[in-house]
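Sample pair:
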Amino acid sequence: MKPKIVLFDIDGTLLLTGGAGKIAIERAFGEICGKQDVWGGVIPDGKTDPQIFLEIAQTALSKNLDPDELDALSGSYLHWFEHEIRKAEKFRLMPGVAELLETLSQQRGIFLGIATGNYEQAAWAKLDRGGLKHYFKFGGFGSDSADRAELTCLAAERGRKHAGQDTIPEVFVVGDSVHDVRAAKKIGAVVISVETGSTPEAVLREETPHYHFQDLCDISKFMRVLGVVD
């Protein structure tokens, strides 16, 4: 079997933090900018953390953040996020995730990674809280690039180095938003969309992913998509 790199988005695909990220962002803006009620009409789904901060600043504060301001907000956010993620009562894994990752981790030639808009520190904190961190050895993050396609490409490159295979691995990307699908297509990956996030099925299908799942409970179907047969 040709080696496979399988990159997973985090929020809405693997897990939900139960509002920990939103609270941490509000605290960061309150601490650095003096205003906590900042969300307005900003929709974070599928966007990178730097994108979200910049969009909130433009919408709620009518300003463009300079690099120093973005760094200050990011540092404050990560501080508060570490606190909030530990106590988030509504934190939960998406259906089928734990079982699927355990199955994939036991397959020779399959390498699991992350492709997320989260800052790397926040991403690992989420996975750790969910008991999933040990399944992943590499990834691409919002702290690598504010551009989703670029960070997904970085994740794939790191996966190839981690795999150390003579044969170039095939890359799969699993995500719940149109941004995941579009980024995966840009790097030539096989796209698996899943409707466990807030994006409706019809909207995801309009992006023409290669495969679409309602959730990640059907492990046999997922393995067939990867070309793994019993």
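The first strand starts at residue 4 and ends at 8.
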